[in-house]
Design a protein that fits this description.
Elements lengths: L14 E5 L7 E7 L2 E10 L4 H5 L6 E8 L11 H4 L4 H15 L4 H4 L3 E10 L4 H22 L12 E9 L2 E4 L3 H6 L2 E8 L4 E8 L6 H32 L4 H7 L4
Parallel strand pairs: 4-5
Antiparallel strand pairs: 1-2, 2-3, 3-5, 6-7, 6-8, 8-9
Helix pairs in contact: 3-5, 5-7
Length: about 260
């Protein structure tokens, strides 16, 4: 079996993070998974949703929005506003991003604030939701670091890093990090969200008019575990690089991510 781009079955696409790309966001990063590129930003609002105030819920909130820009695909994708509603796929993905990030954020330490995570797909070549979660976590870490440096946070709210990756069965072989041609032709498609402690946050998987065995599922999960470990390492490097680019309490940030 030969993958379209020549990678080994357990090999990620080239991954990169360019931090601080949106000047007005509290934290931001341009994340690339191969030819998939997403701008992820975290913006802090000094308020909480009305339902939290009404129910006297302690702490803050984190929510996400996801959109594919019109030029992100081969054929122009109409903006949701032109249809008058958010499409089902975008709604499902932004809920997934929010769930994944809330799983690793101590909302009580956020204070009476809302963290808005916006994920805008510039170019789509498969894995936009996994890139959004992975980049969204970096943007949130950068934002919390900035708040911490400004003295607005006493404790770092991000408990651990979270990342996501796709896996699937392509041409009869379990493979990691599917690009669009592989995703389109895959017999099985998985999206796996895990923390840096190798804890599962969410698994989405289904056969595409096909079935899969327990052995294939185990293989895809092991590939995902390996890939996410590699992503976590790259996330840490990006977060610390962003902190060095902007004055911050590096000792506290480094301690939060197990660096020396």
């Amino acid at each position: 079996m030969t993958r379209p781009d020549g990678r080994q079955p357990d090999q990620l696409r080239p991954i990169s993070f360019i931090p601080n790309v949106a000047a007005h966001a509290t934290g931001s990063v341009l994340v690339a998974f191969g030819d998939t590129r997403v701008i992820c930003s975290a913006t802090v609002e000094e308020d909480v949703p009305r339902w939290m105030r009404a129910q006297r819920v302690e702490g803050g909130w984190l929510t996400a929005e996801y959109a594919m820009l019109p030029y992100s695909t081969l054929e122009r994708k109409p903006r949701d506003i032109s249809r008058g509603k958010l499409d089902g796929r975008s709604s499902e993905i932004q809920r997934l991003i929010g769930r994944a990030l809330r799983a690793v954020v101590d909302l009580k330490k956020v204070g009476q604030r809302t963290i808005w995570v916006d994920c805008d797909v510039l170019q789509a070549d498969g894995g936009t939701r996994t890139a959004s979660i992975t980049g969204g976590c970096v943007a949130v870490a950068i934002a919390f670091n900035r708040l911490f440096a400004q003295g607005k946070l006493r404790d770092f709210p991000l408990k651990k890093l979270v990342a996501a990756i796709s896996a699937g069965v392509y041409d009869g072989v379990p493979v990691l990090d599917l690009n669009y041609p592989e995703d389109k032709a895959a017999a099985v498609d998985f999206n796996v969200v895990m923390t840096e402690a190798a804890e599962f946050v969410e698994i989405q998987g289904s056969g595409e008019e096909a079935v899969f065995s327990a052995a294939e599922m185990t293989s895809m999960l092991e590939l995902s575990r390996k890939g996410i470990a590699e992503l976590i390492t790259l996330q840490k490097q990006a977060i610390l690089a962003a902190a060095r680019a902007a004055p911050a309490d590096l000792a506290a940030l480094a301690a939060a991510f197990g660096q020396k």
